[in-house]
Design a protein that fits this description.
The protein is of the alpha+beta class and 123 residues long. 46% of the residues lie in helices and 20% in strands. Strands 3-2-1-4 form a four-stranded mixed β-sheet. β2 and β3 form a beta hairpin. α3 runs parallel beside α4. The chain is globular.
Length: 123
């Protein structure tokens, strides 16, 4: 097994472990899922009971594209967190469960979560 394959498999294990724990604690709440790539960061509000995405925000959105100096920074993640909180209010969602995926809760992922909390989402 190559190093890239091994690290991808370990990431998937962490991701499934986090999802399992979240599914036990969710109790009907919407899931705020985060995806982080090298250049951008994405957030989705997902209703797992219906299997639908209620709202989504990313560093590629039109509202943020002109304002951001770089889409791969902590500042960009904060902007995405604010935007997803705004869209959650529009979708009448106030309480969510945070899905960090297989990522550690620091850096851009933490910045997004903190900004979403400051703007009205509770988790």
């Amino acid at each position: 097994m190559s190093q890239a394959t091994k690290s991808k498999a370990l990431f998937e294990r962490r991701k499934s472990r986090v999802r399992y724990a979240i599914s036990k604690k969710a109790v009907g709440r919407v899931r705020l899922s985060v995806f982080r790539s090298g250049k951008h960061i994405y957030a989705q509000l997902i209703d797992d009971s219906k299997g639908v995405t209620l709202a989504a925000a990313s560093s590629l959105d039109k509202e943020l594209k002109g304002k951001l100096k770089s889409a791969s920074t902590v500042e960009a993640a904060k902007s995405v967190g604010e935007l997803i909180a705004k869209k959650a209010k529009e979708a009448k969602v106030s309480s969510v469960v945070f899905d960090r995926g297989g990522y550690l809760f620091h850096g851009r992922v933490k910045a997004l979560a903190d900004a979403a909390r400051e703007n009205g989402l509770s988790f």
